[in-house]
Amino acid sequence: MRPFLGVNRCFCGSARVNGCNWVLYVSLEGVIEQNKEAYYLALRHTQGTIRTDAPNWQPWLEFFLRSLAEQVRRLEKKVERERLVLASLPGLSLQIVECAREHGRVTMGEAIHLTGASPNTLKQHFRNLVERGDLNQHGSGCGIWYELR
Q: With contact defined as beta carbons under 8 Å apart, do 133 and 149 qualify?
């Protein structure tokens, strides 16, 4: 049984950097999956009292709140890793990554429009971002586009 089956089970940290929005995702389902035994135990204790005059929500609420705290901890770690990665990028590369993050993908034309940099300079930044593993390249020639890895 999943009490929150229809509820969004993700927690996102968002930021606005240089005019671009981006979101990191951390799944609550992953936290619950790793604590399955405690999940079922808390659920069983609460379900056992649910149809009584004094249902005991405490076991389930404690499990759920501990899970949320773990989810927040994971997101904080992820945000810190992302901050360190982004801090190591040159400004132009950072603009490219932020644009890809905001729009889901970025093309050379969009990068030229966004940054005002020359195509040759941008090609080198795109090449470095692909080699670093920050972006995936799709297509060829004039149809090339990039997305976050």
A: yes
| CATH T-level topology, domain 91-148 | Arc Repressor Mutant, subunit A (1.10.10)
Domain extent listing, the chain:
10-87, 91-148
pTM of the shown model: 0.52
Residues 6-59: pLDDT tens digits?
444 444 444 444 444 445 567 888 899 999 999 999 999 999 999 999 999 999
The answer to whether 97 touches 82, Cβ cutoff 8 Å, is no
DSSP secondary structure string, the chain? --TTTTS--EEEEEEEETTEEEEEEEEHHHHHHHTHHHHHHHHHHHHTTTTSSS---HHHHHHHHHHHHHHHHHHHHHHHHHHHHHHTS-HHHHHHHHHHHHHS-EEHHHHHHHH---HHHHHHHHHHHHHHTSEEEES-GGG-EEEE-
